[in-house]
Design a protein that fits this description.
- Helices cover 41% and strands 16% of the residues.
- It is of the alpha+beta class.
- It has four domains: 208 residues, Cytochrome Bc1 Complex, Chain A, domain 1 (2-Layer Sandwich); 132 residues, Metalloenzyme, LuxS/M16 peptidase-like (Cytochrome Bc1 Complex, Chain A, domain 1); 207 residues, Cytochrome Bc1 Complex, Chain A, domain 1; 203 residues, Metalloenzyme, LuxS/M16 peptidase-like (Cytochrome Bc1 Complex, Chain A, domain 1).
- The strands form four sheets. It has a six-stranded mixed beta sheet, with helices on both faces.
- Helix 4 runs parallel beside helix 9, helix 26 crosses helix 30 and helix 27 packs antiparallel against helix 29.
């Protein structure tokens, strides 16, 4: 289409987009509220359409309440809440949730700590009883306290010390932003502060803050309201509050008198970064909605101010961000950027301040305002796809804004924000003379003669706890958990399918009344189709689909999609590539032509390729400083070297510079065609609507006359290797055991996924049990069995402090061998099967999860009604079958070992276990070479 003709068409489309965008609505969360005599607030939200229920307990205590000299304490205590009560042995919450097909987790924020579970609805009574147990009679002993403290320290090493920008966001931003308010302390703490904590500290903390009057119980899902209220009264009403008043944080952060600069450094910082913060109000301020919209205008999506300016136009940043952090007490507003290669912090600060100043002196356009609002509203809608998401919305509104009803009224407040409001709050709060600039660089950039300041020693703090202390009762004297109720049978979606004349397979499954639709277009081509020496060709082709077509620029695509509150993403993996749309159904007819355009008519412009290539290369520079990423990248050439699977699917620093537009065009013409694709619609859509949309958007897409080439048969490398990747200065080592697996078509597929789930699929699986729970050596250990077309792979992994890498490797190999040496017990096998079935059911309940499942079945030629047989096939797997599979496929003697980290701390120990150990400096890595070394 000529450019002039498109200009007129674009005007008409813009009108359609605007009309559709104005209709954006999110159904409110219905709930009831009551308060027990002891002060416990109870929120209930009924949903009879689900077979599950979410139970959440939110406490009004967070990191700001950490005792002086004990940063990280609230977070440490969160971990301890999963241990014993007077009637429940340690890890019982996993027995009551994960082992019956549910999940549990918790999180610590500045202002609150929340605990949440999702279980089959017939387990509700048990969960209520268990939550009342840990509120009223938590048991904390020295062994559990010591073990969980070690786990938290490993979490700190993994998330903060080993991550290139962990120090910036977890440590330096809060430290530089606040001088007086305890928001300045890192929520995860420090090793010194964690080591200084005592058992008396823990007992006193629980007695002080974990009380009914400081808690909110939230139940969302399928339940009988009268029965629920009776259970709540039975288990929670008898709990008493301590007589001592609740301590409250009364510190007030003083206004800033001028700009400031904070210099931070890290040992593994591949690209410099800058963050700028201002003091801001609390979430209860009338300015909060406008600041939230301002945040979205600045950084929500590729059409945002910061992305368009710093990443797209100037190309000086590889990543941008802003954040309106508006907690219970006055917070902060932040903008920032990770700079692109060759660009400085000064450039970044200047560009960021220029964009902020633009909004201080002129309002955003009507189009920008509409896009920001619709993205915020659509984001809230996606949150409400899950029971736990709805519970979180209610809990957050209660604790941060003071009223759970704000979860519903906040959306109308956002809708009412005007462009003038955005300009006003930008001018009011983002004064350049009141900014704090945080500059983050590698240690090598620290001025000569300047050394890192020593970490302050925790102050001496003596706590003598004299309150009640609970111990685990003997088995005969423990109160038994309540009975399990009658199961609620799930209603499974019924997919319908049709193949268009051009060969496009279309699958539609109505799965929700929530106004949301996912459209997922999967191509049966992935990185295995990369030409030799051009790793990342298919992935870059897929990534570039949304970066401009013959009639739309990349910026136009982003603006049009984001004005709808939609997401449109594309990308490629090992065996498939995809274009995925998520949008409200009333905007689907406007969004589908954009999805079809990027799929059928990509431009692959040289300028856009150069831009995307630089972003990819900078992303790799960051990834090459993360031990977990390096170990993962090494797995493909180690297991599949010399085959089409034997390279990094996303490309490497050596391969990406070779890519030319013609290479992408060739891939698109050969593989991105209707007779090699599957289009899946899920959510609030009928089969008739889906088929009609597919025909209208893709029916005129001709299939090439040339036949599709057959995908290759992959034969793994049979020779195991032991490799240590040396990344000096990194905070942890990533330990990985890899070997060939099975294809999806294998008759052992279900046996394999059950075996893997016993070994490493979940918190209570054997690897995590041995490495995290028993020994505190890692924040988490897991395994994954990936079944592909003609082969597959197995990977077990954990990160740990560098010196513990040999021990963790030994534990992984021991557990792999144990699985083959003896059959799993009946109770263990039943529990691990429940993990698979429960996770599968929760995936079916979201539009994106269901689309992934149906697309995956179609990709591997499995009948779609497999979703109705999944549970039965998992249940049919026997213990002898699991044992035999483990002996045949998971034998550690045929596995390769990859450990990435600070090698001087673990090389000697690894060589004792693997005499043929290859030590490769990270700077010498070449993942395009099966040897992993640069030529």
């Amino acid at each position: 289409m000529p450019r002039q003709a498109f200009a007129a068409f674009g005007f008409v489309l813009a009108l359609a987009v605007s009309a559709a965008a104005q209709a954006a609505t999110v159904p409110p969360i219905p709930f009831t509220k009551r308060v027990l005599p002891n002060g416990l607030t109870v929120l209930e939200s009924l949903d009879k359409a689900t077979p599950n229920v979410s139970v959440q307990v939110w406490y009004g205590v967070g990191s700001k309440n950490d005792p002086s000299g004990r940063s990280g304490f609230a977070h440490l205590f969160e971990h301890l809440m999963f241990k014993a009560t007077k009637d429940l042995p340690p890890e019982s919450f996993d027995r009551l949730t994960e082992d019956v097909g549910g999940l549990n987790n918790a999180s610590t924020y500045d202002d609150f700590t929340n605990y949440y579970e999702v279980v089959p609805a017939n387990h509700l009574q048990r969960l209520l009883w268990a939550e009342s147990e840990r509120m009223g009679s938590l048991v904390v002993d020295k062994a559990d306290f010591t073990s969980e403290r070690q786990v938290v320290e490993e979490e700190l090493r993994q998330r903060v010390l080993a991550a290139p920008y962990g120090r910036l966001f977890a440590l330096y931003v809060p430290e530089a932003t606040y001088r007086v308010h305890p928001y300045h302390r890192p929520g995860i703490g420090s090793i010194a502060d964690l080591d200084a904590a005592t058992l008396d500290d823990v007992l006193a903390f629980h007695r002080t803050y974990y009380r009914p009057a400081d808690a909110v119980l939230i139940v969302v899902g399928n339940f009988d309201p009268a029965q629920l209220n009776a259970w709540v009264d039975k288990y929670f009403a008898p709990l008493d509050n301590p007589k001592a008043p609740m301590p409250r944080v009364t510190a007030v952060e003083p206004p800033r008198k001028g700009p400031g600069v904070f210099n931070g450094y890290g040992p593994n910082v591949p690209l410099p970064a800058v963050a700028i913060t201002w003091l801001a109000p609390s979430a209860r301020s009338p300015d909060a909605p406008a600041l939230t919209v301002l945040d979205a205008v600045l950084s929500a999506g590729k059409s945002s101010r910061l992305y368009d300016s710093l990443v797209y136009q100037k190309r000086i940043a590889t990543e941008i961000y802003s954040n309106a952090d508006l907690p219970e007490q006055p917070g902060n507003f932040m903008v920032g950027a990770v700079m692109a290669s060759g660009h400085s912090i000064d450039e970044g600060e200047k560009a960021l301040l220029a964009e902020v100043q633009r909004l201080r002196t002129a309002p955003p356009s009507a189009e920008e305002l509409e896009a920001a609002k619709n993205q915020l509203i659509a984001g809230k809608l996606r949150e409400r796809e899950t029971l736990e998401g709805r519970g979180f919305a209610l809990g957050y509104a209660k604790w941060i804004e003071g009223d759970p009803a704000k979860a519903n009224t906040d959306l109308s407040a956002i809708q009412q924000v005007s462009a003038a409001d955005v300009e006003r709050v930008a001018d009011k709060y983002l004064d350049p003379d009141k900014r704090m600039t945080i500059r983050y660089r590698p240690e090598t950039a620290r001025p000569k003669g300047e050394s890192a300041p020593p970490a302050p020693a925790p102050p001496k703090r003596v706590v003598r706890y004299v309150g009640p202390v609970f111990t685990l009762a003997p088995p005969a004297k423990r109160q038994a958990p309540p009975p399990i109720g009658k199961p609620v049978q799930p209603v499974l979606p019924r997919p319908a399918e049709r193949t268009l004349a051009n060969g496009l397979r279309v699958i539609v499954a109505r799965s929700s009344d929530l106004p949301l639709v996912t459209g997922d277009l999967t191509f049966k081509t992935g990185a295995w189709a990369d030409p030799p020496g051009l790793a990342g060709d298919v992935a870059m082709t897929a990534d570039m689909l949304t970066e401009g077509t013959t009639t739309r620029s990349a910026q136009e695509i982003a603006r049009q999609v984001e004005r709808l509150g939609a997401t449109l993403e594309s990308g490629g993996g090992l065996e498939s590539s995809s274009v995925t749309l998520n949008v409200m159904p009333d905007k689907l007819s406007v969004a589908m032509p954009i999805m079809a355009d990027v799929t059928k008519n990509p431009a692959f412009a040289a300028e856009e390729l150069a831009r995307q290539r630089q972003l990819a290369l900078d992303s790799l520079r960051v990834a090459y400083q993360e031990p977990g990423q390096l170990a993962a990248y090494a797995a493909a050439p180690v297991v599949f070297g010399g085959t089409p699977f034997g390279h990094v699917p996303s490309g490497t620093p050596e391969s990406l510079p070779k890519l030319k537009p013609a290479d992408l065009v060739a891939v698109h013409q050969q593989w991105f065609r209707p007779d090699n694709a599957i289009l899946v619609f899920t959510g609030d859509i009928t089969p008739e609507q889906g088929f009609a949309l597919a025909e209208k958007a893709f029916g005129d897409w001709p299939a090439p006359a040339a036949a599709l080439p057959s995908p290759p048969v992959i034969r793994p490398n049979p020779t195991p290797r032991a490799i240590a990747i040396d990344l000096p200065g990194t905070g942890q080592a990533a330990v990985t055991v890899v070997k060939p697996g099975i294809p999806r078509s294998s008759p052992d597929y279900y046996t394999g996924i059950v075996a893997n789930t016993v070994l490493g699929g979940g918190y209570s699986a054997r690897l995590n049990e041995e490495i995290r729970i028993k020994r505190g050596l890692s924040y988490g250990a897991s395994s994954r069995l990936a079944a592909n077309r003609t082969t597959g792979s197995f990977r077990a992994a954990a990160q740990t402090k560098n010196q513990s890498a040999p021990q963790v490797l030994e534990l992984i190999e021991q557990e792999m061998a144990k699985l083959a040496a003896a059959p799993a017990g009946a109770e263990e096998l039943k529990a691990r099967k429940s993990v698979l079935v429960g996770s599968f059911g929760r995936d079916l309940a979201t539009t994106g999860g269901l689309a992934d499942i149906l697309g995956g079945l179609a990709l591997y030629g499995v009948p779609l009604d497999e979703i109705t047989r999944y549970t039965a096939k998992v249940d049919a797997v026997t213990a002898p079958e699991v044992q035999a599979f483990a002996a045949r496929v998971l034998d550690p003697r045929g596995a390769s070992v990859i450990v990435a980290g600070d090698a001087k701390a673990f090389t000697a120990g690894l060589k004792a276990k693997a005499p043929g150990l290859e030590v490769i400096p990270a700077a010498d890595l070449d993942f395009d070479n099966p040897s992993l070394r640069k030529r």
